[in-house]
Write a structure and sequence with these properties.
By secondary structure, the protein is α+β, with helices and mostly antiparallel strands. The chain has one domain: Gcn5-related N-acetyltransferase (GNAT) (Aminopeptidase), CATH 3.40.630.30. α2 links the parallel β4 and β5. The longest helix has 16 residues.
Length: about 110
């Protein structure tokens, strides 16, 4: 647990636009938000945090960085990941303003 706490205290969110992900390196593990992009819209469709790091605010830190990026760049967000749509946005209502409705908007 001490090792995990040390990693979390030093975590830095990395945005990899080429891979379309926001991620945090956690030693041998990686937590990440995956998204799709079309035009000025980002679809946050999946966030993953390895079991040993769950319930430690890792997902929240990644999502805050991703929503801040979207706001800064003037991008809309569709939150098709149930955790983001239901849990995160309830706890962080300040990000609801930039969220558009839609369910997997890029699937034809």
């Amino acid at each position: 647990m001490e090792y995990q706490a040390a990693l979390i205290s030093k975590m830095n969110v990395i945005h990899d636009a080429e891979k379309k992900e926001f991620r945090v390196e956690l030693g041998e593990y990686r937590a990440m938000l995956m998204y799709a992009k079309r035009g000025d819209t980002l679809d946050f469709y999946h966030i993953y945090v390895p079991d040993p790091f769950r319930e430690q605010r890792v997902a929240g830190k990644i999502l805050v960085a991703a929503f801040e990026y979207a706001q800064k760049e003037g991008l809309k967000v569709v939150a098709t990941c149930p955790f983001i749509a239901n849990d995160f946005l309830r706890l962080f209502p300040q990000y609801q303003k930039g969220v558009s409705p839609g369910e997997f908007p890029f699937v034809k």
